[in-house]
Design a protein that fits this description.
Keywords: Cell membrane, Membrane, Transmembrane, Transmembrane helix, Transport. It is a single chain. This protein is mainly α and 350 residues long. It contains 14 helices and no strands. The chain has one domain: ABC transporter involved in vitamin B12 uptake, BtuC. It starts with 7 loop residues before the first helix and ends with a helix.
Length: 350
C-alpha cells in the first residue's frame, strides 16, 4: 500500500512545528544558562542571595563590599565561563561539521596541547615575542601562536592528496602526544616555582579572567560566530556529504579551510587565556545536535548555549565540591565530561 503524498500545506505545518520546538528548546537552555550564571555569582567564599546579587549589579546604593566582590572578582569569571564555553562549543561543532568526524574538537586535534606547550615555553624558559612592557601577555601570546601554528600544520597536511578527514583526526591525536611529550620534557627541567605555574595553567582555570581578556574573547566569539552564521546554508549542506554539497554549488575545500582556521582561532584565543579545558568542545555539540538536528541556523546557537551552560555549571561545581576551595575548572569538566560523553555514545548506539 502506497503512502499518500504530503501536501505543501502539511509540509509547511510540519516545518513550523519543528521550528517552534527548536525555538522552545533554545529558550529553555537560555533560561537554564541564566540561572547557572546567577548561582555562579552567588556562591564563593561569601554567599549572597540572588536578590543581593541583582541589587549589587544594578543598585548603586548596595553595600560597597558586595559590589566590589561582584564587579571586580566574580562577574569577569562568571562571564568568562559563558564566553569560553560558547567559544569551545562553536569551535567544536564547526570542526566536526567541516571534517565530518564526531570526534573532532580543539582538544582532540591537539590545539589545547599545543597551547599548553606554548605557555610552558614562557613560564619555564622565559621565551616571549613581546617586549618587556607587555610581559603580562607573554604567556597567552605564546600559547596562541603555537596553537595556531598547529592548526596551520594540520590544514597544510590536509591539502595533500589522499588525506581523509579520519586521517586528519588521527594527525591531531599524534600532535596531542607530541606536544604532551615536549611539555613533560620542559616540566622535567623546570624549577619548582615555574613547575607549579605550568601545572596550574594546564589544569585550566577561569580565575585569571579580567575585563580586558573577557573583551578580547567576546569580540572574537562574536566575529567568528557571525562568519559561521553567514555560511549556515553551506555548512548544513556539507553534512549531506562532500559530493552532494559540491553538486549544490558549495565550495567544499574553501569552506573546510575557513572552518578549520576560524574554529582554531576561536579555541586558541580562549585556551591561551584560561588554559586547557577539555570535553566542552566535544560534548556540547553532540548534545545540541541531538536536540535540534543538523540545521546550522539552530545548531550553532544551541551549541553555543550548551557550551556556556556546561562551563557555567562546571564553575558552580568547582566552588561547591570542596568547602572553602575552588578546583581548577579543567578538572571538573574532565570528570563530568567523560561519563557524559560515554552516556551520549551509548544512547546513540541504542
Amino acid at each position: 500500500m502506497e503512502t499518500p503524498p504530503v501536501s505543501p500545506l502539511q509540509s509547511r505545518n510540519l516545518y513550523l512545528r519543528l521550528t517552534r520546538r527548536r525555538l522552545t528548546l533554545l529558550t529553555g537552555i537560555g533560561l537554564l544558562t541564566v540561572i547557572c550564571f546567577l548561582i555562579d555569582l552567588s556562591i564563593g567564599q561569601a554567599h549572597y542571595s540572588s536578590l543581593e546579587v541583582l541589587s549589587a549589579l544594578w543598585d548603586t546604593d548596595a553595600p560597597l563590599s558586595v559590589r566590589v566582590i561582584l564587579w571586580d572578582i566574580r562577574l569577569p569569571v562568571a562571564l568568562a565561563a559563558l564566553v569560553v564555553g560558547a567559544s569551545l562549543a562553536v569551535a567544536g561543532v564547526q570542526m566536526q561539521t567541516v571534517l565530518g568526524n564526531p570526534l573532532a574538537s580543539p582538544f582532540t586535534l591537539g590545539l589545547s596541547a599545543a597551547a599548553s606547550f606554548g605557555a610552558a615555553l614562557g613560564l619555564i624558559l622565559g621565551v616571549s615575542l613581546l617586549p618587556a612592557s607587555a610581559v603580562a601577555f607573554a604567556v597567552p601570546v605564546n600559547a596562541f601562536l603555537i596553537s595556531m601554528g598547529a592548526a596551520l600544520f594540520i590544514h597544510r597536511l590536509s591539502q595533500k592528496r589522499g588525506i581523509t578527514t579520519e586521517m586528519i583526526v588521527l594527525l591531531g591525536t599524534t600532535l596531542v602526544f607530541t606536544f604532551t611529550a615536549l611539555l613533560q620534557a620542559l616540566q622535567y627541567v623546570a624549577p619548582d616555582q615555574a613547575l607549579s605555574a605550568v601545572v596550574f595553567w594546564t589544569m585550566g582555570s577561569l580565575s585569571r579572567a579580567n575585563w580586558l581578556k573577557l573583551g578580547i574573547m567576546s569580540v572574537t566569539l562574536a566575529l567568528v560566530s557571525l562568519a559561521f552564521a553567514k555560511q549556515a546554508w553551506a555548512l548544513t549542506a556539507l553534512r549531506l556529504g562532500e559530493s552532494r554539497a559540491t553538486s549544490l554549488g558549495v565550495p567544499v575545500a574553501r569552506l573546510r579551510l575557513r572552518g578549520i582556521l576560524l574554529g582554531s582561532l576561536l579555541a586558541s584565543v580562549c585556551v591561551s587565556f584560561v588554559g586547557t579545558i577539555g570535553f566542552v568542545g566535544l560534548v556540547a555539540p553532540h548534545i545540541a545536535r541531538m536536540l535540534v538536528g543538523e540545521d546550522q541556523r539552530f545548531l550553532l546557537p544551541t551549541s553555543a548555549l550548551c557550551g556556556a551552560l556546561m562551563l557555567s555549571a562546571a564553575s558552580v561545581l568547582s566552588k561547591s565540591l570542596i568547602a572553602g576551595q575552588t578546583l581548577p575548572i579543567g578538572i571538573v569538566t574532565s570528570l563530568v565530561g567523560v561519563p557524559l560523553f560515554f552516556t551520549l555514545i551509548m544512547r546513540a548506539k541504542r
